[in-house]
Amino acid sequence: MDNQELINLIDELRALPKETEWVEFKLNTIKPNEKLGEYISGLSNAACVNNQSFAYLILGVDDNDHSIKGTTYNFKQQKQGNEDLEFWIRRYLSPSIRFEYFECQYGGHTKIEIFRILATIGEPTNFQNKAFIRLATSLTQLKDYPHYAKIIYNSQEDWSAKIIDKATIVALDESAIQKAKEKYKEKRVGKPFYSEIDNWSNALFLDRAKITIDGKITNTAIILLGKPESAHFISPSVAQITWKLDTDQKAYEHFGMPLFLTINDVLKQIRIVRHKFFPNNQLIATEVLNYDTEVILEGLNNCIAHQDYSYNSRIILTEKANKLVFENAGSFFEGKADDYLLGEKTPKNYRNKFLVEAMLNLNMIDSLGYGIFKMTKSQYHRYFPLPDYTKSKREEVVLEIYGNSIDENFSKLLIEYFNEINLSEVILLDKVQKTLPIKDEAAKLLKKKGFIEGRKPNYFISAQIAELTNQKAAYTRNMGLDKEVLMSFIVKHIENHGFATREEIDLLLLDKLLDYIDDKQRKKKIENILQEMKKDKIKNIGSRGFPKWVILGSD
């Protein structure tokens, strides 16, 4: 890599979040020498767990703010005893993995050192017979996290393609096979073999659809087409969806195999009703369904396709009063949800490659990374909040699909100015209405267009949009009242009642402060106002713990 390519790589890595587990920034040096070997082990293993081809160790970049500082470290000149450090580290890495070392002159005069470390495959990378892994921002021993060790050992194996020796076609549901053949045929219109499909035997069809392998039953075949009583073939893994109703009413039901059929039974549980919006520029209401059935099926099929079946857990669909919550085990396999919102990213790999291909052949999913994009467009076209993955955790993907508006005025905005706001701007405004963080460049763009106001991270819908969508009252609350007005409330209260306790002052002012800050910030704001008023307006004649404020100069 030439120097400019290295600079581009460094800038790309600096733009990543601080907690990225396959990138480690160090300010200047690494001591003792053993630590460097442990980092190479930990980063190689972390790259495998996070489905990355490489991990990176960068010297000369501040880990706190990713600013360029430079380093005086020189890896090529380091020694371990009488031996070159590089040879010593490579000798103690097992299995032997390739890591590359580069020096970069950043900005022409600041030296940065880069280690590019190949992700391990099939077994953990050890240093001095110990395996490490980087989790969040910490380097720790892999033995304390057996599930991640299992992921590494299974990294060369596609669980969904595994053949079940004792299973035969008798383990599959005949009606599910026939329905699957119909769906397979629908996608093959125009193919030379289209007219022959009806005459295929079940065994031939299952092989052609990549559900079985040479007539042998796979985990994929059991998940999609297996009879309920065939569940033991994949045990302790589970192929089951649990639907839960969590509203003023409570209910639940489990749906097992064959998931190719029972997914439609799950869909029937969801209450689909019409929702009305009353735009300001129209005389009649706009009606939309609270949920799009294709979005529900897309969400469920994504859960089936991307579930980490080694967790031995169910897929859960919770129906709440205003949204559906989909939960499946395992992290995002490649990238993050935001990468797929615009339909511009195509994943290079999948956790369950064989299962994904079978589901694609049966028209259950789109394998090109457009699933999230399709759900996003559907929500946008129905004026609802966009698909939300923000509650996802390290070992669980959580998708929320709203069947109601968070802020109805935001929905009205989409109706009234549908052709004037592009999808990228809708995505950013959706984050603002959900009080989610947005990047500085995005905030600058939205401010330039007059869409938002406020200071990082407390952005809110601007006066311009407030005017367009009748949010004037909300805008006034967001802007808050002048400090002098708030002070006058306190003085008036004391004049009327003789004194004011802190509890009374909080009760008086809390709902008059900025609408987008939390209670802790509001109380701190009140504390600052009281401290300023102590100079020339009021005094405390009580204790610090139980203040009693009176007008300055009174008894």
Automatic annotation (TrEMBL):
Annotated ranges, domain Schlafen AlbA-2: 19-139
PANTHER family: GLPR-RELATED TRANSCRIPTIONAL REPRESSOR, SCHLAFEN ALBA-2 DOMAIN-CONTAINING PROTEIN
Name the UniProt record assigns to this protein: Transcriptional regulator
Source species of the chain: Arachidicoccus soli
